[in-house]
Amino acid sequence: MTLSPAEFEVAQLGERTVASPLSDTRFVAESDRVLFRDDLASLRSALENGVAPLSFELAGPRERIFFDPANVKCAIVTCGGLCPGLNDAVRAIVIGLRDKYGVDDVLGLRFGFEGLVESYGHKPVQLTRQRVGWIQERGGTVLGTSRGAQPATDMVDTLERLGIDVLFAVGGDGTLKGAHEVALEIRRRNLSIGVIGVPKTIDNDISFVETSFGFETAVAAARNATQAAYVEASGHRNGIGLVKLMGRDSGFIAGFAALADTHVGMCLIPESPFSLDGVVRAVLSRIELDGHAVVIVAEGAGQDLLAASDQSDASGNVRYGDIGVFLKEQIPKLARSNGVDVSLKYIDPSYMIRSLPANTRDAAFCQLLGFAAVDAGMAGKTDIVVGLWRRRFTHVPIPLAVSTRKKVNVDGRLWQGVLSATGQPRDLR
Ligand code: ATP
Ligand code: MG
């Protein structure tokens, strides 16, 4: 992938002329950046060719900001599927705006992008300190969410009508694409409204963002499912415990869950193709070895084995076939035709995981991410998503963040680790 420094350039609404109300803070200079690639060869090649090495602008408070906190109105929207930490992110943005910057007009838009379209009639709510006080204890999103495309023109009409200066959009790749459309329409109308994305993806599949919130909680909760699968599998003759985990296009949750539980003997992800024969062969040899087998499958894995779907959800995402149910039905059938009578127990914990409140680490992460989003918004940054890169918070232009989807590198450390930990054959085709 060839990338240019221009793709890392962050858009700014205008000159920052207002003194920041923050005191006792280490301000971040506009020139503070973190390298995109940190290997010596890349750095050397950039310097030898006389080009600036690729780097991200650092997030954090600016000494001079664009918006006057006394006269700024902000809105927050949460979109897409549920993910642990949504309420933490909302709360962090509210607290960051109100307590750090002294902003006193913060609206919550209801039910995703629908909340930005007047004809739905969803009334915005004022997000006071009291209103968000305990929301982090609950799963889901207190603002509600939705899928489904909404016209950017209608959404910007609403921003204008409500007098919003900064829109914070918490969501995944679809939300970020929607937020970018909004930013483009704002630019077309020559308005000074900032659009700041906060990356929500339980699958951790947003490019140029090392970690998104909810992922850590999901992996921890997946462990309960793999442990239950192990108990079931080991308690039956030729037992198989099959667990389906989230991961539409990227197998990060499945991979980390396999690493985290040594009982897992096989992990199937979208990035590594397999055949039913290959899987059954490997499962049977695992049973021969241990007497039982625990298998994790990511929801988007093995889609080539299922009938192609022509259906999509309201947001236009293609509905995937259910690989979990397919394997649950097919593995015992094929094993039996190989003369082995297996007992398979199937666990699909997806909705139970999505609806959990964030765990400690995700909660702390959301807090910092929310504050970084507020700093970016007040500084007048726009069309960006706040990210994490080499443990530094960054500003990533939305077009860059949605340009590709982050995938598990099958030659990389995670997948090689999974192969060693599970002992499964490299090639299951
Ligand atoms: P997740 O997939 O993790 O649940 P997401 O943000 O990708 O989160 P989606 O339902 O795909 O969830 O999208 C959220 C919102 O963004 C929806 O209202 C959807 O219509 C809108 N959206 C999705 N893709 C686009 C796009 N290409 N352009 C404009 N809006 C989009
Ligand atoms: Mg998505």
From TrEMBL:
Belongs to the phosphofructokinase type A (PFKA) family. One of its GO terms (molecular function) is metal ion binding. InterPro entries: ATP_PFK, PFKA, Phosphofructokinase_dom, PKF_sf, PyroP-dep_PFK_TP0108. The keyword rRNA-binding does not apply. GO terms for cellular component: cytoplasm. It holds the Pfam family PFK. Keywords: ATP-binding, Glycolysis, Kinase, Magnesium, Metal-binding, Nucleotide-binding, Transferase. GO terms for biological process: fructose 6-phosphate metabolic process. The keyword Ion transport does not apply. It catalyses: beta-D-fructose 6-phosphate + ATP = beta-D-fructose 1,6-bisphosphate + ADP + H(+). It comes from Antrihabitans stalactiti. This is ATP-dependent 6-phosphofructokinase. Its cofactor is Mg(2+). Residues 73-376 form the Phosphofructokinase domain.
